[in-house]
Please model this.
Amino acid sequence: MHVHHQGRSTYTLIIPSAVPGTPPRVEYVTMGTDATKGEKRQLLVGTGIWKMSRIPQEDLNDAAVGGEAEQERTGCLISEVVTPGFVWEDHRFMTAADLEGLFGNAEGGDETISELKKYLAVGT
Model:
């Protein structure tokens, strides 16, 4: 479970399909305090789902215009609760090969790969 505390963050969730040959689903969820805009304070992410988060571009743009003090305040604090527990041996970062395997044969897969590849860990 991810619990929002402060700031805003956009999560990208890549949900692999259970049906062979069917591309994964990509969902975007904004963690924040404004429920009228669809923002969530809690997000449950099941096992086997790839996820990443980043500060929304509009928040970065606003901070750039607001000066140095605003830039220093722009960020997000989210806690992650893992059950039944977290062990590093169960964790791994997505690689370019993982991304290709998920979207390589899908319609529009090249665009999705191009969009998401910039967020992969360095050296993958």
Notes: Residues 57-66 form the longest helix (10 residues).
